[in-house]
Amino acid sequence: MGFLTGFYALFFYVAVLIFLVGVGHKIYEYARTPAPLKVPTMPAPLTTTGVAWRLTTEVVFFKSLFRANKWIWILGWVFHFCLLLVLLRHLRYFIDPVWLWVDLLQPFGKYAAFGMVAGLAGLLLRRIVVERIRYISNPSDYIMLILLLIIGMSGSMMTFVKHTDIVQLKAAFLGFLSLNWQYNLPADPILFVHLTAVFALMIVFPFSKLLHAPGIFFSPSRNQVDNAREKRHLAPWAAKLEN
Ligand code: HEM
Ligand code: HEM
Asked: What pLDDT does 75 receive?
């Protein structure tokens, strides 16, 4: 294994570790944080099934964003949906043999790159052009969008402009995953830009606004049932005080 491959293998392990432990720890914290008050945004579902449906429509369609602002909704939804397709397409680099549905998804994942980049560019433009949004934007808001744009554009360069050696890349990554480091990564500068940005994103994920992804499931205004009259709401710590 060459020096550069060794460096990126190490970078990969560190990034995956920080991502998994960091996000896992945040989820643990979110799950343990008391929600002392009933605060679902009204009108709210009356049953648990209703809450599951509400969360599904939020996660799949960004329902409340749709109601709030159609422009941000279209840009945000297109970006996220395309990101999902792109990520699912990437599974082929990490599994062997490739599952049929991942195979079938390949053309969609490939062209989703355009939707991802266009959505991100629109969201970035909005932060720069709309004065009200510029006023409330901080460096991390820009950095996340720029990092994702670098990932999307370097990825698209490899897919549509200057191909990288996918067979060699896959051999190297399967090697990283099975701790068998005999294959080098292809010596392709665009791939190294792509990987550097991807690993940086994984490292900042547990400390950044990207935590909205697991966070939405723990949001009391979205995940509570509107049953305050039928059932007394008691946070666990308040219940302890009662006895
Ligand atoms: C459960 C999965 C996810 C859901 C439901 C979700 C939903 C949302 C919503 C509703 C917004 C707000 C748009 C706005 O009001 O400005 C947003 C923003 C954003 N999301 Fe996600 N997201 C998810 C996962 C992710 C992931 C995995 C990433 C990146 C790796 C990501 C990156 C972003 C970024 C960068 C923004 C900010 C856009 C801006 O600057 O305006 N999201 N997301
Ligand atoms: C270790 C993780 C990753 C590896 C090894 C990797 C590798 C690659 C490679 C080799 C390509 C070129 C595909 C081709 O020529 O057919 C590519 C494309 C791309 N990558 Fe990644 N990537 C990784 C993670 C990511 C992540 C996390 C994102 C998004 C946040 C991303 C976004 C893209 C996009 C948008 C494209 C272009 C469209 C496509 O071919 O799917 N990549 N990636």
From this structure: 98
Structural domain span for residue 191: 3-33+47-225
Closest CA to ligand 1's atom 5: 59
In the reported structure, the alpha carbon of residue 195 is separated from the centroid of ligand 2 by a whole-number distance in angstroms of 8
pLDDT tens for each residue of 174-217: 999 999 999 999 999 999 999 999 999 999 999 999 999 999 99
**Residue whose tokens read 């009204």:** 42
Ligand nearest to the CA of 114: 2
Residue nearest to atom 16 of ligand 1 (CA): 72
Closest CA to 30 of 230, 217, 161: 217
Question: What separation in Å is there between the alpha carbon of 70 and the centre of ligand 2?
Answer: 29
In a domain, 39, yes or no: no
Give me the number of domains the chain comprises: 1
- Domain containing 84 — which CATH number? 1.20.950.20
- Whether this prediction's pTM lies above 0.85 is answered by yes
